[in-house]
């Protein structure tokens, strides 16, 4: 099993080497270990996938539960783990900084901070405060003994603010505040993605697994994207298969869903390949 320092160093080097990498998002220990067994070099948590697995809505788990989830996944895998740390679980920069310190203590190699205001309020932090929150997170990350990779997220497009200029302006400011990776989930137009990549000098993460966003790994690599994540897509795909199977049983009284189910042998084999 790799040490925390080794995972952090490996994760940082993945962002510095040429080319793009895919970092899928497991929602529990089993899915994390199977993704590692399939050969993925790093994985990332999904706040909504984790919440769904606990029978809760997204953003209802709280910092303590999320960090314990991270600690469990770190212990179960030997690849670097980055975490969806939502908005840092507080509005003020000091809380965001504390979240980064606590996240690193779980063994994480990185984590993301959003610029959206958490429920029950829905919206985006005003620009100056959003930048101060990222600056506080970056300063906390720099004081850690291991090279923690901080991702800054601009949530405009997830909040029906399809403003590319403001998104780029915010990400440029987060870059200047010390973020290592920049991320604007839900941008779907490939020309907009390319414009964003050209407008910053940090690695860019792109979210795939959303409707009307069907670019391939090769296409995103050609644009200059460094990292791909899929958010809750794998969790939703698993839940979708579960619901289709359950509805087939309930409504049709048949069991054809088993024709596409993974075999126990395949699952056991993937789990055997990971620690």
What does this 3D model show about the protein?
By secondary structure, the protein is of the alpha/beta class. The chain contains eleven helices and ten strands. An eight-stranded parallel beta sheet has the order 1-10-9-8-7-4-3-2, with helices on both faces. It has a two-stranded antiparallel sheet with strand order 5-6. The longest helix is centred in the last third of the chain and has 20 residues, at about 235-250. The protein starts with a helix and ends with a helix. About 40% of the residues are buried. The mean pLDDT is about 95.
Structural class per helix/strand content?
alpha/beta
Q: Spell the H/E element sequence.
A: HEHEHHEHEEEHEHEHEHEHH
Which overall shape is indicated by the principal axes computed on the Cα atoms? globular
Strand-residue fraction? 5-15%
The main sheet comes to: 8 strands, parallel
| Gyration radius from CA atoms, angstroms | 19 Å
Question: Strand order of the main beta sheet, please?
Answer: 1-10-9-8-7-4-3-2
Question: Spans of 5+ residues with little confidence (pLDDT < 50)?
Answer: none
Distance between the termini: 7 Å
* DSSP helical segment count: 11
- Mean pLDDT, to the nearest integer, reads 96
How much helical structure, as a percent, in the residues? 40-55%
* Beta strands, count: 10
């Amino acid at each position: 099993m790799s040490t925390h320092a080794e995972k952090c160093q490996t994760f940082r080097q993945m962002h510095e080497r040429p080319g793009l990498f895919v970092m899928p998002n497991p929602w529990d220990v089993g899915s994390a270990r199977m993704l590692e067994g399939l050969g993925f070099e790093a994985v990332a948590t999904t706040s909504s996938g984790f919440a769904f697995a606990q029978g809760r809505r997204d953003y209802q788990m709280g910092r303590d539960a999320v960090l314990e989830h991270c600690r469990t996944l770190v212990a179960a895998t030997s690849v670097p783990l980055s975490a969806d740390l939502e908005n840092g679980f507080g509005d003020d920069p000091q809380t965001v900084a504390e979240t980064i310190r606590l996240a690193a203590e779980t063994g994480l190699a990185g984590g993301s901070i959003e610029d959206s205001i958490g429920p029950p309020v829905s919206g985006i932090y005003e620009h100056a405060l959003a930048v101060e929150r990222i600056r506080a997170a970056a300063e906390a990350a720099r004081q850690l003994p291991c090279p923690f990779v901080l991702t800054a997220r601009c949530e405009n497009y997830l909040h029906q603010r399809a403003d590319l200029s403001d998104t780029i302006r915010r990400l440029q400011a987060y870059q200047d505040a010390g973020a290592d990776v920049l991320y604007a989930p839900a941008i779907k137009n490939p020309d907009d993605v390319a414009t964003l990549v050209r407008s910053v000098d940090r690695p860019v993460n792109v979210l795939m697994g959303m409707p009307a966003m069907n670019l391939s790994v090769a296409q995103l690599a050609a644009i200059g994207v460094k990292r791909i994540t899929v958010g809750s897509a794998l969790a939703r795909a698993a839940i979708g298969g579960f619901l289709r199977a359950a509805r087939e049983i309930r409504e049709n009284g048949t069991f054809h869903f088993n024709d596409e189910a993974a075999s126990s042998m395949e699952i056991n084999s993937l789990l055997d390949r990971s620690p």
